[in-house]
Amino acid sequence: MKTICLAISLAISLVASAQTKTTIVDSLIHRSNRIGVFKGNVLVMDKGKVIYKAAIGYTDATEKQTLTTAYRFHIGSIAKEFNAVAIMMLKEQGKLSIDDKISKYLTGLPAWADKISIKNLLQYTSGLPNLKWGELKSDGEAMAALKKFDKLDFEPGTQYAYNNSNTLLQRQIIAEITGSSFAEFVTNKMLKPCGMSNSIVDPTDEPLVARSYNNARVQSPMAYPITGWTAVTLDDFYKWEKALESFKLINPQSTREILTPFSPGKQCGLGGGTMDGEKLIYHQHDGTALNYQALLTAYPARGRTIILLTNNKQNTLYDVNKAIEDILDGKPYQQPKKSVLNDFARQLDSLNGNEIIPWYNHLKSKYATEYGFDNESSLNMIGYYYKGKNRIDDAITVFNYNTQLFPKSGNVYDSLADAYNAKGDKEKALLNYKRSVTLDPNNEMAKKIIEELEKK
Question: To 10 degrees, the CA torsion angle through 361, 366, 368, 374?
């Protein structure tokens, strides 16, 4: 009888704990919405159960109709997971090898097609130039633009350059091999088997599709320079993640292949993550397209998945995600605030290296309560913004200052290490990755990068 009472008491305690977390997450999301840092849809799973699921925001720039969880969102670069998985499906069927040169499947390209492998496309090491996507309106125009280049930016497999020229050719190869469009392949061979009945590739005027818009309430056109972009609901996105974790479409070896970047800290087919043997233990991927942003974070062994979808980009999804994770872990959390990067990107572009920190501190004294100056992610996002523009020394300056402000954070040292790694400074990259792991022993990605760097 005593054992039964204890069991009942424990069950009640667990239910109360889950309810408390749900209430706190709900408060976080609604407060974030009120101060203008998040509009969109949210799904929080923990221990395999729904902790929180909500829609908060509007369907389009008119802000007259509210979102529901049935709405579909573009997910930016996360949609590239579909072409990466499709290629591995075809590999497992014996229809291609990732070491094949692309000229085997695509004709009419310049001589450089004999040098580029499918693996180069997956790892963004092809050397393909980045096209002027704003001037292109179709796959045909994009292919014609590529054919005008008679040489690559670098020898395939020697450097990394993240651009959609690689995505375009991946999708063209899939269509050529299967004899159907990429959209048809995704719909019939991926979405349907995964039960993703509400997802759609390249939506235009279909109902229940959130339209993206900026803070001036200017709506983005639903136009695509290349095709093949899948829009998903919260539930379908979760089904996709579970399909990856259970190896429903491709086996663990193939999953590892597209989870392995060209070098530590670079993007791969599935964004980023780690595996332990034949188990996926961590997966994170973010994406941006127009004013859409999406972030998925999953810890399969813990039954935890957090999905954030917005059609009103504020560059705050990582802050919201971090707060939710802290709530789930029973830790103190910080309320997300407005993004410095989102509101001051033009000024950041105009600053020289030695002007950045004084400008930031002036901004901090002026808008101390409005923006996330008390949060490490504010500078972190600025650092990655500069890193994405290949201003590596400026990124290092920003990340280094962040370590001075938040010396107990493993994440800021991880970011500084990423910048040194991008610069090719192995010694300082290793030093800071190790500092990160010391402060955050759960940083599995940093452990993996340390192991790879020490082999070189």
Answer: -10
